[in-house]
Amino acid sequence: MTTLLIAEHDNKALNEATLRAASAAAKLGDGFDVLVAGEGAGAVAEEAAKIAGAGKVLNADNAAFAHQLAEPVADLIVSLADGYDAIVAPATSNWKNTLPRVAALLDVMQISDITEVVSGDTFVRPIYAGNAFQKVQTSDAKKVITVRTTAFEAAATDGSASVEAVDNTPNNAISSFKSEQLAGGDRVDLASAKVVVSGGRAFGSKEKFNELLEPLADKLGAALGASRAAVDAGYAPNDWQVGQTGKVVAPKLYIAIGISGAIQHLAGMKDSTTIVAINSDEDAPIFSVADYGLVGDLFELVPELTSALD
Amino acid sequence: MKILVPVKRVVDYNVKIRVKADGTGVDLANVKMSMNPFDEIAVEEALKLKEAGKAEEVIVVSIGPEKAQETLRTGLAMGADRGILIKTDETVEPLDVAKLLKAVVDEEQPQLVILGKQAIDDDANQTGQMLGALLGWGQGTFAYDVELSGDGVDVTREVDGGLQTVSLSLPAIITTDLRLNEPRYASLPNIMKAKKKPLDVKEPGDYGVEIKNRLTVLETTEPPKRKAGIKVGSVAELVDKLKNEAGAI
């Protein structure tokens, strides 16, 4: 069974989520090819060629794929689907957006956000915000799957696959890219960070949130995250939200500060290796998943922790 | 123009669900059910467009058991004009939901279908995109902002790195994310009025769609539990534990 793995990238670099989805793709059976859909993403294709186990890399280079809009990219994937038994992508916002479109065009019921490959047709996936897990078996001949990347290790990058150009000029009159506001900056990517420092509503203001958390995150080389409450209050941008409906993270160390620990938030971080919670309420639900809990005033404890890390 | 808003009856957002001991599923007996929160946001967005004079009619549609009428009545009480229930007691997977919705779209000819980005029970996050594919329409998923112009709609989307705005020609699909709006509460007079609004009850067969599930659920399990941690008394103790016990820093 050959699988087509869809690469997550920004036309410049291959996102680590691809390597994690590659591990899931490898578990399906007889190898996988990688599709890079983008514009001027040759360097990404070269990086993808190093993914251990990759058969070949298909580089679909076209202006219409520059922003990876769902409509043209879904058509591209469908045009390649005949040669594959499974289509696999990381469950990033890009592929959450595009892959169900592919599935419907192929008349396949997608399996979203898998956390385990049990066999070629059986998978485990979370439901109810991760409060339960379903083992599902599909009867579809072709599989369309998105992968929860935190559940899989990154594949090695010691391969040397060939890169082939895919000639595909989409005809897309229904959607176009207008603009984007991406956070960028030097901060580590939240989804793949080894350490995440997250703040909640208890900070009380955007200023305090940044003033207290940034030095701590800098010391730890950490990505910054936030609870939904903190995002809704405007303390942090929306793409920092950790939780079932935001980003699911599983770093080696997750430090939750001033976060009470709503189910939604816990679903997004409880697979972290070590969890630290700092909260003034000793009964806060966050302590039920924390390896180390510290009860007290975050306005005192956070600066103290930051200086203790010198 | 018409706006179609599909709504799903799900376990209430605040309920802590329990997995049945025999692994056959989630215990739904005597559990409070509500409209899927993302669908409430979808209803609200449709109503805002109507109130801004950009739409004439908002139709809510649900696929589910008889009791999904309650969910439709909630939508009507919020302000939708009429409802359609496609009644079935079977589990309907997103692909079949999309096929049924396509049939409703073919009949009703809305210019916009606004859906929640995912239902909080199966967390599939598929139906809107699948409907877009089946109709050949453009899609603005995970919407943060919606700007309707004459013959198109700009949708600002929540994406991994921040926000992305796409322009779609109409008709189009929009799926809602959390920050698109704050859904209104239905007032008591509106709840009373909603009881008199038209609500058609149909069956999947009326739309020529056969429910054909592709997935078999073999087992439902509890997530692995984390072992209980400890409380530390000071920052110094925390740093010591992280360094010497957990090896985390």
Automatic annotation (TrEMBL), chain A:
* Keyword Transcription regulation among record annotations: no
Specify the Electron transfer flavoprotein alpha/beta-subunit N-terminal domain's residue ranges: 3-181
* InterPro entries in alphabetical order: DHS-like_NAD/FAD-binding_dom, ETF_a/b_N, ETF_a/FixB, ETF_alpha_N, ETF_asu_C, ETF_asu_C_CS, Rossmann-like_a/b/a_fold
Q: Where are the transmembrane segments?
A: none
Q: Is Transport found in the keyword set?
A: yes
Which keywords does UniProt give here?
A: Electron transport, FAD, Flavoprotein, Transport
Could you say which protein family the record assigns here?
Belongs to the ETF alpha-subunit/FixB family.
Q: What is this protein called?
A: Electron transfer flavoprotein subunit alpha/FixB family protein
Q: What is the lineage of its organism?
A: Bacteria, Pseudomonadati, Pseudomonadota, Alphaproteobacteria, Hyphomicrobiales
UniProtKB/TrEMBL annotation, chain B:
Q: List the keywords (alphabetical).
A: Electron transport, Transport
What is one Pfam family matched by this protein?
ETF
Q: Where is the signal peptide?
A: none
Q: Does the keyword Heme feature in the UniProt annotation?
A: no
Annotated SMART domains: ETF (SM00893)
Taxonomically, which superkingdom?
A: Bacteria
Which InterPro entries is this protein grouped with?
A: ET-Flavoprotein_bsu_CS (IPR000049), ETF_a/b_N (IPR014730), ETF_b (IPR012255), ETF_beta_N (IPR033948), Rossmann-like_a/b/a_fold (IPR014729)
Give every Electron transfer flavoprotein alpha/beta-subunit N-terminal domain span: 23-211
Report the sequence similarity comment from the record: Belongs to the ETF beta-subunit/FixA family.
Q: PANTHER family from the entry? A: ELECTRON TRANSFER FLAVOPROTEIN BETA-SUBUNIT (PTHR21294), ELECTRON TRANSFER FLAVOPROTEIN SUBUNIT BETA (PTHR21294:SF8)
- Name-wise, this protein is Electron transfer flavoprotein subunit beta
Species the sequence originates in: Maritalea mediterranea
Starting at the broadest rank, the lineage of the source organism is:
Bacteria, Pseudomonadati, Pseudomonadota, Alphaproteobacteria, Hyphomicrobiales
